[in-house]
């Protein structure tokens, strides 16, 4: 077993051209954007809309990174990071909206 067991040595971060990250990021963006769009009319006003805009901008940045960054390892690391950021932004916005709607947090 001569293969490295380190996470940063996996194929998707060393040999990929980045298309798979765009596919995964696109699928996550569709899901997250759809849910954030549906949450726009819930309180607090603007949280879901802001999250929606950020998620879309992050995916657009992924597309730019895929074609603009020539160093493969850097490009793949950035694409992986932006994919995670899409999910993190969605979760933060969804938790805030859900907490306010369920009354777990009182508005100030």
From TrEMBL:
Keywords: Membrane, Transmembrane, Transmembrane helix. The chain crosses the membrane at residues 20-42, 48-69, 76-100. The keyword Membrane applies. This is Uncharacterized protein. It comes from Cryobacterium levicorallinum.
